[in-house]
């Protein structure tokens, strides 16, 4: 592992991990989308991104559409 990599915190469990092992998302207006280089971003760890209960907690917290959010995570995990 590259030790110079920035350490980021998972928004859900607050676990700290190297940035490359986390999913990066952003809040655009009220919707959470994949991070595209600008805007307010946050991170989600591998464990939380596969944990239905945690995801549902985030959906509630950010008032997201459940179906859309699960699809987004699925896409991100496929690509990343
Ligand atoms: Zn986490």
Automatic annotation (TrEMBL):
Pfam families: YlxR. Residues 8-66 form the YlxR domain. SUPFAM superfamilies: YlxR-like. Transmembrane segments: none annotated. It comes from the Bacteria. This is DUF448 domain-containing protein.
């Amino acid at each position: 592992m590259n030790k110079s990599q920035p350490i980021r915190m998972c928004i859900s469990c607050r676990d700290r991990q190297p940035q490359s092992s986390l999913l990066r998302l952003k809040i655009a207006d009220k919707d959470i989308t994949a991070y595209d280089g600008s805007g307010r971003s946050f991170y989600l760890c591998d464990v939380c991104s596969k944990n239905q209960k945690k995801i549902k907690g985030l959906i509630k917290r950010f008032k997201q559409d459940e179906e859309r959010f699960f699809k987004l995570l699925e896409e991100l995990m496929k690509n990343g």
